[in-house]
C-alpha cells in the first residue's frame, strides 16, 4: 500500500470523511466490478458497492495496515453480495444483460469481439453464484486462492475445484455457442 | 481456447461490463460520504504533563499513606475499579485497547502482572454512552472482553465488546 493511501486510511480512522471519499473514488470501479461480476445486476451492484464502502468505514479498525486494501474491500463486497444472493435467492439466470460500448476500428473484429464478450456475459450469468463468486474474485479481483478460501470460509481445495469447474462450464458454453473451438488445455 | 485466454476473457468481460455502467457510480464517493456515520470524538487516554505530575504526586501520597495507615497496598491491577478495563492473557507479548474510546487507535495496556493480567484506566471524564471496543493481542489477534455485558457482531464476523457508561450498579466494568 502506498504511503499516500496509508495516510488517507489513517485520516479516515480519525473521522475525516473526505479522506474516505478519496478512497472511494480510487476503488469504486473495481469494487463495483466485483459486485457486478457476482450479482450480474447493475442496480444491485451499485447498492452493494455503496454499502461496502460504508461498512468498510465503520469497520476500518479491523483492517491491518500491512495488508492489501483491495483484498479487504473486495472481501466485504463479496460477503455483501453473498448475503444479497442468499436473501433474494437469485439462483436463476440473470436478467440484466448489457453490451459494452467500446469503439473498434475493424467492424468484423469488433463483431467477433462483441460476440465473444456477449457470450461470455451470458455464460457467466448462467453459472451458479457458488462458482461465479470465486471466479470473479480470482480473475477480476486478482485474489489468491487462500484469500478466497478465507473469505468464503471454504477449504482452499474446494475453491480450486469450484474455479476449475466454473472454467470448464464456461468453455463448454462458449463452445456450444460456437464462439471458440474445442478447449486445448 | 487456452486457459490464459479464457481467464483474460473473463476479466475483460467484467471490466467492460463495469465500464458500461460506470455512470451509476459517477457520484458514489459523495453518496458514501453523505451516508457515513460520525465517529465519536476521540477520548484522550494519554495523560498530559500536568496530569502526569498530579498522578505521580497522588501515587506517592497513596504509597506513603498506605504505610502510615499500616495497611497493605494491593499488588495487582485494580480490576474492580469501574474505570479500569482488564484482560487476563498471560502469554501475550502486548495487548492494546482499540475502540471508540481510543478513536480506533491502538492504546497499549499495562501488564502483564504476575497473574497475566493486562489493564488500562479509562479517563475520569468519560461521557455517558455506549462504546464498542476490543483488545488487540500481539498486534494481530482481536479479542473480546469477557467481562463486557454486551457484544456486537461486526460485518466481518468479529466480535466487539460494548461498554455502557456509566455502568449500572453491580455491573462489572
Question: How is this structure best described in words?
Answer:
With 185 residues, chain A is an all-alpha fold. Chain A folds into two domains: 90 residues, Orthogonal Bundle (Rna Polymerase Sigma Factor, Chain: A), CATH 1.10.1740; 82 residues, Arc Repressor Mutant, subunit A. Chain A is 71% helix and 0% strand. The two termini of chain A are 35 Å apart. Chain B has 173 residues and is an alpha+beta fold. Chain B has two domains: 33 residues; 117 residues, Sandwich (Immunoglobulin-like). In chain B, 27% of the residues lie in helices and 23% in strands. Chain B has three helices and eight strands. In chain B, β7 and β8 form a beta hairpin. About 8% of the residues of chain B have low confidence. The chains are: A mainly alpha (185), B alpha+beta (173).
Features:
heterodimer, A: 185 residues, mainly alpha, Rna Polymerase Sigma Factor, Chain: A, Arc Repressor Mutant, subunit A, 2 domains, 8 helices, B: 173 residues, alpha+beta, Immunoglobulin-like, six-stranded antiparallel sheet, two-stranded antiparallel ribbon, 3 helices, 23% strand, elongated
Q: What structural class do the secondary elements of chain A suggest? A: mainly alpha
Rg of chain B (C-alpha, Å):
24 Å
Shape of chain B: elongated
> What's the number of structural domains of chain B?
2
**CATH topology (level 3) name of the largest domain in chain B:** Immunoglobulin-like
Q: What fraction of residues of chain A sit in β-strands?
A: under 5%
Uncertain runs of chain B with pLDDT below 50, 5 residues or more? 41-45, 66-74
Percentage of residues in DSSP E strands of chain B: 15-25%
Order of helices and strands of chain B: HHHEEEEEEEE
Shape of chain A, please? globular
Total strands of chain A: 0
Distance between the termini of chain A: 35 Å
Largest interface: A-B, 60 and 44 residues
Q: How many domain regions of chain A?
A: 2
Amino acid at each position: 500500500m502506498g504511503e499516500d493511501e496509508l495516510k488517507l486510511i489513517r485520516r479516515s480512522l480519525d473521522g475525516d470523511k473526505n479522506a474516505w471519499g478519496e478512497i472511494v473514488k480510487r476503488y469504486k470501479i473495481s469494487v463495483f466490478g466485483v459486485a457486478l461480476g457476482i450479482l450480474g445486476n447493475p442496480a444491485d451492484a451499485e447498492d452493494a458497492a455503496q454499502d461496502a464502502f460504508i461498512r468498510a468505514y465503520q469497520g476500518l479498525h479491523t483492517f491491518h495496515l500491512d495488508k492489501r486494501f483491495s483484498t479487504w474491500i473486495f472481501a466485504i463486497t463479496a460477503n455483501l453480495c453473498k448475503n444479497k444472493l442468499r436473501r433474494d435467492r437469485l439462483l436463476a439466470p440473470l436478467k440484466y444483460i448489457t453490451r459494452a460500448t467500446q469503439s473498434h476500428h475493424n467492424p468484423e473484429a469488433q463483431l467477433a469481439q462483441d460476440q465473444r464478450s456477449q457470450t461470455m456475459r451470458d455464460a457467466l450469468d448462467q453459472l451458479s453464484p457458488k462458482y461465479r463468486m470465486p471466479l470473479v474474485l480470482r480473475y477480476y479481483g486478482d485474489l489468491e486462492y487462500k484469500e478466497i478460501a478465507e473469505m468464503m470460509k471454504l477449504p482452499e481445495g474446494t475453491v480450486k475445484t469450484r474455479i476449475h469447474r466454473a472454467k470448464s462450464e464456461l468453455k463448454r458454453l462458449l463452445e456450444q455457442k460456437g464462439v471458440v473451438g474445442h478447449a486445448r488445455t | 481456447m487456452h486457459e490464459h485466454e479464457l481467464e483474460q476473457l473473463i476479466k475483460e468481460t467484467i471490466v467492460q461490463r463495469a465500464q458500461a455502467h460506470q455512470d451509476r457510480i459517477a457520484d458514489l464517493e459523495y453518496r458514501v460520504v453523505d451516508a457515513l456515520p460520525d465517529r465519536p470524538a476521540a477520548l484522550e487516554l494519554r495523560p498530559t504533563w500536568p496530569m502526569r505530575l498530579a498522578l505521580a504526586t497522588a501515587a506517592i501520597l497513596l504509597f506513603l499513606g498506605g504505610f502510615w495507615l499500616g495497611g497493605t497496598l494491593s499488588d495487582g491491577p485494580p480490576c474492580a475499579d469501574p474505570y479500569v478495563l482488564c484482560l487476563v492473557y498471560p502469554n501475550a507479548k502486548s495487548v492494546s485497547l482499540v475502540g471508540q474510546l481510543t478513536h480506533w487507535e491502538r492504546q497499549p495496556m499495562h501488564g502483564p502482572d504476575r497473574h497475566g493480567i493486562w489493564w488500562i484506566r479509562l479517563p475520569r471524564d468519560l461521557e455517558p454512552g455506549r462504546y464498542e471496543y476490543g483488545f488487540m493481542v500481539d498486534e494481530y489477534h482481536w479479542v473480546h472482553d469477557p467481562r463486557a455485558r454486551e457484544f456486537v457482531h461486526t460485518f466481518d464476523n468479529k466480535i466487539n465488546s460494548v461498554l455502557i457508561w456509566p455502568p449500572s450498579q453491580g455491573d462489572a466494568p
